[in-house]
Design brief:
Blueprint (H helix, E strand, L loop, with lengths): L11 H22 L11 E2 L11 E2 L7 H22 L12 H9 L1 H7 L1
Antiparallel strand pairs: 1-2
Helix pairs in contact: 1-2
Length: about 120
């Protein structure tokens, strides 16, 4: 670690909340990849060929989300929102020197990487 970097002593509950937030965001993104491209039923389309290209962009018809899919999306979003609030409003941030909060936040976001390497 360079000499001018500050060492932050993150409390364990903040580290756990950040790790849970990371997992929740990942789960949400992975689930979103399985969903139809539109939440509402929509007709697909095919664009005209682009100038100087044979590529034609297109989308198939989207059936929209099922009720179960809507429920799961809402659950995952609520979990990410709750964990985001827990991390961002943690009392630890009041102890960080002005001008160092962004640096501390960036370190916290990657703290799980350092722990995995150790």
């Amino acid at each position: 670690m360079p000499k001018n970097e500050t060492v932050f002593d993150f409390p364990s509950d903040l580290l756990h909340a950040q790790a849970a937030l990371h997992r929740a965001r990942h789960a949400s993104e992975e689930y979103a990849r399985t969903l139809p491209w539109s939440a509402e039923p929509m007709t697909g389309w095919e664009a005209d060929k682009q100038l100087h290209s044979s590529y034609r962009s297109s989308k198939p018809d989207s059936p929209g989300y099922t009720d179960d899919q809507r429920t799961e999306v809402a659950r995952l979003r609520a979990e990410v929102l709750c964990l985001s609030a827990a991390v961002s409003t943690h009392s630890f941030w009041e102890t960080v020197e002005n001008g160092k909060v962004v640096e501390a936040r960036m370190r916290l976001k990657h703290a799980h990487e350092s722990a995995a390497e150790a």
